[in-house]
Amino acid sequence: MDQLAAMTTFVRVVDTGSLSAAARSLPSSLTSVSRQISALEQHFGTPLLLRTTRQLALTDDGRVLYERAKSILGEVGELEAMLSRGRHAPTGRIRVSAPTLMGRLLIAPLLAEFLRRYPQLTVDLLLVDRAVDMIEEDIHVSLRVGHLPDSQLVARKLADLRMVHCASPAYLQRRGIPKLPSELSQHDCLVFSDSPGIAEWRFGENAKPERKIRISGRLWVNSLDALVSAAKEGAGIVRVPSWQVAADVAAGSLQRILVDHEPPPTAINLLFQPSRLTSPKARAFVDYLVERWRSSDPFAVREAARPKQ
């Protein structure tokens, strides 16, 4: 039995949902497809598919094989491309995951230039606000913010993310500028959350330990875009990632406050599987993203020029 060919057939059966559909797409005969699935089950000594009159379903062992087979076949495809076209000519498809808003605002605008630079590459950008399973979901590069759990994944630090506090100049003129985090109890706070209630904002100061201030928000929104829009209209004080308001602060529509009390920055990392560390397409994407982000510094927040008194 050609195990790679059999695994290719098995993956195609699962993806298409039936033996006959897999046979048509390969293309191959239905008998050949059925024979390869049976050979795999005999080789591993366990059923892989549950066959009913209407559909196929994976057994637990079948699901494990499906996930690993997709990863293995992807590695083989990368190896073939690397050996046939050379390490300096990335080809094929690269799958990238990122948090939704960060991916939309900071990664998607860079993809046009990346695709022009590497015309033989295609990109799948998965925008999700969860930690993806890179092996199961066949992700080559994943952008993660915050603490990384121990794992076999390789991390490359990309940047530091700061949480900043802002309000519109009109609001600050009307209500005053808080000098200390404790003064936020006298202000209207705008809170990012799915469930209204009591929120806590973290603050830091020089080498002192972090502390949390309980916030009773006037407005609760589960969208950072909407929250920033409300702050620009004078609804109150917002706490958001620096890149989210960099343009608004530079334009003067928002003003940073409590700068000396901001919490320590959080690392932004690019993750990839060890086996894909030397993949030409993964390396090309990582190097490109590092190059563009470090040259444009999307996390820097520059204050608008203040008129001379």
How is this structure best described in words?
The protein is α/β, with parallel strands linked by helices and 309 residues long. It folds into 3 domains: 80 residues, Arc Repressor Mutant, subunit A, CATH 1.10.10; 95 residues, 3-Layer(aba) Sandwich (D-Maltodextrin-Binding Protein, domain 2); 99 residues, D-Maltodextrin-Binding Protein, domain 2 (3-Layer(aba) Sandwich). The protein is built from 10 helices and 14 strands. The strands form 4 sheets. A 5-stranded mixed beta sheet has the order 4-3-5-14-6. Helix 2 crosses helix 3.
Outline of the structure:
This protein is 39% helix and 24% strand. It has 309 residues and is α/β, with parallel strands linked by helices. 27% of the residues are buried.
Write the layout of secondary structure elements.
Elements lengths: L2 H14 L2 H7 L4 H15 L4 E3 L4 E3 L1 H26 L6 E7 L1 H8 L3 H7 L3 E7 L13 E5 L8 E8 L1 E5 L1 H7 L13 E4 L6 E7 L2 E8 L3 E3 L2 H9 L4 E5 H10 L3 E3 L8 E7 L7 H17 L13
Parallel strand pairs: 3-4, 3-5, 8-11, 8-12
Antiparallel strand pairs: 1-2, 5-14, 6-14, 7-12, 7-13, 9-10
Helical content class: 25-40%
Indicate the proportion of strand residues.
15-25%
β-strand number: 14
Would you give the CATH topology of the largest domain? D-Maltodextrin-Binding Protein, domain 2
The string of secondary-structure elements, in order, is: HHHEEHEHHEEEEHEEEEHEHEEH
CATH architecture of the largest domain: 3-Layer(aba) Sandwich
Strand arrangement in the largest pleated sheet: 4-3-5-14-6
Structural class: alpha/beta
Q: Can you give the mean pLDDT?
A: 81
End-to-end separation in angstroms reads: 83 Å
Tell me, briefly, the overall form.
Answer: elongated
- What is the count of DSSP helices, taking H or I runs of 4+ residues? 10
Number of domain units: 3
Largest sheet: 5 strands, mixed
Q: What is the CATH C level class of the largest domain, in words?
A: Alpha Beta
**Rg, Cα atoms, Å:** 25 Å
